[in-house]
Amino acid sequence: MAERGDVVWAPDPFKSGSGNPRPWLVVSADRLPYPNEESIAVAFTTQSHHPGSFAVPSKAWVRGEPQTQSYVLPWTVATLKDETHIVGVQGTISDEFADHVTTTLSSYLSPSTDVEDT
């Protein structure tokens, strides 16, 4: 079972073919309807050209830090079925970093109370 803060390998929806896993950061908690079977995750990447992505600092890694700088895309969200999609675990990031990512994700889902003139 994937835990909040785990960086897991699961299918990449942006590429075709069977050998295409990519890293995902699990951000869901136990409040999901099926917490022992599914996880909500956001995409990891080594590409830094995405405005709004977060660099994962070394101090955020609890275990399994890769040799290449990683970034989180908090707007690229997937529901992963643990038994079907997750093919491995790379490591774990800190609760503080996971909180930062989920706060940002939540902000994308909340309606804005400010209306901008365009």
From TrEMBL:
It comes from the Archaea. InterPro entries: PemK-like (IPR003477), Plasmid_toxin/cell-grow_inhib (IPR011067). Pfam families: PemK_toxin. Gene3D superfamilies: 2.30.30.110. GO terms for molecular function: DNA binding. This is PemK family protein. It comes from Natrialba hulunbeirensis JCM 10989.
